[in-house]
Amino acid sequence: MWTPPSQVLRRTPRQPPAPSLMAQHTSVIRGSRRAAPLTRSGRRFGALLALPALVLVLGLIAVPAVQTLVYSLQDGTFVRAGSWNGFENFTKLFSSEKFRNSLWLTTVYALGYLVLSTALGLAFALLLNQRFRGRWLARGLLIVPWAFPWVMVGIIWKWFVDGDVGVLRALVVDTGLSDTFVAPLSTQNGAVVVAILAAAWRQSSLAALLFLAGLQSMPQEIHEASLVDGAGIWQRFVHMTLAWLRPVVAVVVILSTISGFMQFDVIWAMTQGGPGNATTVLSIYLYQQLFVDTNLGLASATSVVLGILALGLGFLSVKLMYRSNGVSEGVQ
Fold first, then answer.
1. Rounded to whole angstroms, how far apart are CA atoms 280 and 302?
2. How far is CA 265 from CA 160, 261, 273, 283, in A?
3. CB contact set of 210 (below 8 Å; sequence gap of 6+)
């Protein structure tokens, strides 16, 4: 009976197990990415190499972020200089029912976007890692969704589900599956689901490329050892493939979480926050506060809340993922 490597390693020295090939290859997974410690001169040289990028990040991200934080503590507009009002903008935000609904919708949207894009990306990568005729063409087509701009993705999916000329309507009505067709974007729940599907379709392309690169770097001896030890498909997937892809999963989770909370283009191109406020996520709520109501203070406060949510939940999910696998030193 096959024993996962983690259970083999947790046994006490008093009960030494017969070393399996899987246990011998565990060091490949857990130790292959450990780099040798850098010397002082090496660290200094690395810091010098990173300095230009650090200056660019500070200029393009850090400075605007600090400026947004300052604006969030003021009551200014585009035409009037603001005065300090402390945390009054944040108090107004959280006392607004529209903001609370938008916050809840954003969380649901980001969670669905994260789960769906990650699952689809992993499934595509596992499929394209197999050998079959025409694999080179399938791998080339994988990048097509990612090549589309976010706005174009929204327009394509809007046409796809259109109630008059959409492809989905033709599939449902013209094929006789149903006599009537209700456009998904005309209903609240349907609009949210289509918005998640459209964004996840594009993001799954990037996730699949990252997962496929990780699978390509996995030593073949690990799979061969698991087959010799009698491991099943599910055991190999959980204990070997996912263990090897854990760093890639962390990257995908962070990117997808941040992208999910910051999503604007797809939703705006499809619904502009409608019908009603059904798809008014925080990014669209921010747009309305800034360009419709010209309230710079509330818009900046919304940006601060949105940024904290995206970054905080992204790194928290990675922290929990590593802790659940018993490996927490990588994100400390």
1. 13
2. 17, 12, 11, 9
3. 121, 125, 248, 251, 252
Cα(58)–Cα(65) distance, integer angstroms: 9
How high is the pLDDT of residue 221?
79
> What CA–CA distances, in Å, run from 225 to 32, 116, 179, 320?
17, 32, 56, 29
pLDDT at residue 319 tops 80:
no
Q: What is the per-residue pLDDT for 241?
A: 87
Please name the amino acid found at residue 213: A
Task: Please confirm whether the linkage preceding 52 is cis (ω < 30° from 0).
Answer: no
Three-state secondary-structure class, residue 182: coil
Helices (H), the chain: 5-9, 21-24, 26-31, 40-57, 63-71, 88-95, 97-128, 135-142, 144-147, 150-160, 167-169, 188-216, 220-228, 233-236, 242-262, 265-270, 282-287, 296-324
Which residue pairs from 234-238 have beta carbons closer than 8 angstroms and sit at least 24 positions apart in sequence? 235/2, 235/4, 238/4
| Mean pLDDT lowest among 58-62, 80-84, 111-115 | 80-84
Sequence spans of domains, the chain: 38-62, 72-331
User: Which burial class, exposed, middle or buried, applies to 152 when counting CB atoms under 10 A from its CB (0-12, 13-18, 19+)?
Assistant: middle
pLDDT digits (tens, 9 = 90+) for 94-116: 999 999 999 999 999 999 999 99
Q: What CATH number was assigned to the domain covering residues 72-331?
A: 1.10.3720.10
58, 121, 124 from 133: Cα distances, Å: 48, 21, 16
Place of tokens 């818009």: 299
**Distance in angstroms (rounded) separating the CA atoms of residues 210 and 121:** 8
Cα gap 112→110, rounded to integer Å: 6
d(CA 5, CA 235): 11
